[in-house]
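Input chain follows. Return structure tokens only.
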Amino acid sequence: MPLYLDTSCFLKLFFTEPETESVHELLATEQRVIISFITELETLSQIYGNFVGGRYSKRKLNDFLSRLEGHRNKNPFEFRVVDISIFQIARRQINSTSVHCRTLDRLHLAAMEELKVRRLLTNDRIQAKAAIDLGFQVILP
């Protein structure tokens, strides 16, 4: 059964954070890890934002971008494009749940539904609650 990797956990593959080791261990046991275009876009935004904010050099930026591209050809990762219909799915999800989460997190959940992925690896507890409310299985690192 595939695992959807949201941005909060995908970024752990680039930046060392307290949950980085746990994310690596969890991913090592997976056969299929789905990276949606939303996750990729949010990751690019974080990588460029940190560069523009002066947190690292152009050389380090290029290293991060190269590593991101390298994940495309690396098992168990599958990069997937999502359809514009995720906005309608997200709207329906909002209307059918009492658990609120941020818009991009809601779009991740809609992408999961569109891609027919039922398992989520996230470090975001609010998104996790919304996912559970929708019947998704959630793994927290």
